[in-house]
Specification:
- There is one protein chain.
- With 435 residues, this protein is α/β, with parallel strands linked by helices.
- The chain folds into three domains: 47 residues, Transferase, Pyrimidine Nucleoside Phosphorylase, Chain C (Transferase, Pyrimidine Nucleoside Phosphorylase, Chain A, domain 3), CATH 1.20.970.10; 245 residues, Pyrimidine Nucleoside Phosphorylase, Chain A, domain 2 (3-Layer(aba) Sandwich), CATH 3.40.1030.10; 88 residues, Aldehyde Oxidoreductase, domain 3.
- A four-stranded mixed sheet has the order 1-4-5-13, sandwiched between helices. The protein has a four-stranded antiparallel sheet with strand order 6-9-11-7. A three-stranded antiparallel sheet has the order 10-8-12.
- The protein binds uracil.
Amino acid sequence: MIDMVSIIEKKKTGHALSEEEIRGFVKGVTDGSIPDYQTSALLMAICFQGMTRQETFTLTDAMLHSGQTMDLSEIKGIKVDKHSTGGVGDKTTLIVAPIAAACGVPIAKMSGRGLGFTGGTIDKLESIPGFRVQLSPEEFLNTVETAGMSVVGQTQDVAPADKKLYALRDVTATVNNISLISSSIMSKKLASGSDAIVLDVKCGQGSFNKTQKAAEDLGRLMVDIGTDAGKKVVAVITDMDQPLGNAVGNSLEVMEAIDTLKGKGPADMTELALTLSGYMIYCGQKADSPEEGRRKAEEALGSGRALDVFRKFVTMQGGDASCADDFGIFKQPLHKAELKAAESGYIAGIQADSIGLASQHLGAGRRTKEDSIDLSAGILLKKKVGDPIESGETLAILYSDSEEKLANGLKEAGSAYTYAAEAPKRPVLIKEIIE
Ligand code: URA
């Protein structure tokens, strides 16, 4: 049994913890033998004093081995995973997975539910009538082999130490530390069994990385952790100052993903999807360079092959694939309202976190794990940063099942917009790529 008081003292006074201490800590967190107050104290000391690279690698490895690790060796080929650090309107997995799979890269993905602004990928997929996110291991492998991809809910057994630590970090203001974030993300990704990982590291006002530098530091550290574990990892640093695409909300985002797979998606969503899937195809060794990967991604999109993969994967997971042709099969919201522009000129900014909060007010996101979500609630943006606007013109349409929630959502969404008399620069979407 490790001596937690001396470990906390050691970190508090700025010393590096030994491998034995870190592994003992993670073991004690996992088996419940360390009380939450001591774990919280150590997390806070880590936030103040930081961790060395070696400590961070050890923490990641200990968390990754705190539970089950997935064995995907039965699936032929180089399996590639993708992860986003999270943003508003981020439906990218639903687009890049079918594109990469259509180019021969097997995608065997575990995803989470969301806490926060909208649901996670799993919630979004559940807006498709009949879609099942829990598959037996045989069904999961068979779906990847037959459709080229599968997305299922994360099991309780993957990195259980992270589950406990993340829940405590959430309520002790200790989320935002680079070593804790990178070990949390990478332990789950490495336990999920893929051979390569493409990371979409968001930066800007709607991300926990407020600056590009913070996102780059996190991306670099995660690439190093993955490389150390023998995986090919690429981090793409992307903008999250304004929401991604136009749709924010669960079924709304699935519909936008389908539109993007048909080549009719918003420009920023399409650009991000092609960049990320290009890297996934390259990391999966189905292209000799990221540029060739992107060309293949464009072909998979333009030819409809990626949409075919989407239909097949949805069908194999019990979902109604006619959603790709008829958006009427999604649950329809009871109420909608238009948000109107307060000024004329140009849209200078759309605060991603205010739009995210507004969508949560509408019912699209959870405040606590126990909350249920309204899969049809959300926001459809009609204008993006840099667009010209007339006072009274529609900025966005909001959807909800409750008129009270709609009123709260409208108030919050209205506060997201800033205006300018001159045309502002359009934001740069892809900021940096770290290999
Ligand atoms: N996402 C995670 O999974 N962990 C973190 O610490 C932050 C974001």
